[in-house]
Amino acid sequence: MTSDSKKRVVVVGAGWAGLGATYHLVSQGYDVTLLEAGSYPGGLVAGWKTAGGRPVEAGIHGFWYPYQNIFGLVDELGLDPFTDWTKSSQYSPAGLEAVSPIFQKEQRLPMPLGTFAYPQFPRLPLVDRLSAFTMMYPIIDFDNSDDAWRRYDSVTARELFKSYGVSARLYRDAFEPMLLVGLFAPGEQCSAAAALGMLYYFILAHQADFDVVWCRGTVGEKIFKPWCDRITNAGGKILTQRRVTDVRLNDLGQADAVICGDEVFEADAVIFSVGITGMQNIVRGSSTLQQHPQFRDMMNLGAVDILATRLWFDRKVEVPQPSNACFGFHPTTGSTFFDLNALHDDYRDQPETVIEADFYHANQFLAMEDDEIISMVQDDLITCLPDFREAKVVDSSVIRLPRAVTHFAPGSYRYLLPAQTPINNLYMSGDWVVTRHGSWSQEKAYVTGLEAANHVINQLGQGFPASIAPIEPDEPHIQMARSVNKTVRELQKSLLPEFLLP
């Protein structure tokens, strides 16, 4: 098939979703142009450098046990970018709070017993840990269906945990920190539906789900660069510094071009693969998209500020675990720190210590000067590991990311966009797009990119759909409990007035 006769697709946004859609469509013979507003492909994993030329990225991104589609992609690309499975620790200003094992190496217990039995909690009393089991009903009731999302989305995560009797200490010392680093906001600002979906996928569905590997360098260098090379070698076009300003429609109401200032990229189908903030900026400038209530309504969605720092110390400091989460250091803000000497190949044998420290819901920190931020990070590290008191910072990086990640606030579900839009050849993808797959974060973004590519293939009739690995099925006792719960709900619906339904 000549390039003139190929179906043309324009993909907007070169993160996991956009690259996933582009890669598959190029493999199926489409003429694909990928437009990225930034200077490099990669979205949040695009590369930066310090003043001394050292590579940095916007935070460290873990790859969790359920990320089977991303792991399959990496295998297909012939890459070997990941560490072994790692343990992790959790700290508060009072000291070490928890150490998580590599769960897949432990004897498998029925969900969720292993999640609570195997980690070490040196300070959290058993009675508080046992109060977590009161959450079994909402976990069973939340089956990722549209009805479940609508049922729980108007409630805050904090209200949910409180109403089901989770102890105040367990919420403060365990669940709130998970929300701060998983949904990037405190529980009173998180949708209960999003909290249940995130916690179930990463922690509660199966014992091994909390296991994680890390990239042995920046994700941009280890994964995205070779992936982009594969796309361009197959004929795909990746164009950076192209900020989309509008979409052009033909007489049939279909998108036939994407406009970037004075440039026009003609298309038979369009896929948007940008975050909420980027999509809202596009809608603000697009007279075409503004005509549709669905796009206007998504302007109600919010996003969260992220702060990513990297510090090089002048000496070796022993860090017990390579990945660590912190809570209680700063109100409404969660943080993590990583020992890059243990995770990154370039630092493994270096005499210096390299630490990545990232802050989520970091609104109050973005206005601080770099030296103030670095001093704050040092103080936090010293509180967790006193040996940092003698270490001096010899290089550092501070990356501010305002409105960088999705805020799944209470009531936000109604405004999230589905893959299919009112413009019947324009599709959405990204970690904030509604999907029934059940995945989260990077895996969800990649999966929705493949789903968008499949919509294009189904519409234009060329090529074969991408194969998408489903999440691991619920364990038998959860399947049975959900089946019973669904039957009871349907019976209640047929017998009770709507205002009496739970």
From TrEMBL:
Domain Amine oxidase: 17-457
InterPro entries in the record: Amino_oxidase, FAD/NAD-bd_sf, Zeta_carotene_desat/Oxidored
Gene Ontology molecular-function annotations: oxidoreductase activity
PANTHER family: OS04G0560500 PROTEIN, PROTOPORPHYRINOGEN OXIDASE
UniProt protein name: Zeta-carotene desaturase, putative
Organism encoding this protein: Acaryochloris marina (strain MBIC 11017)
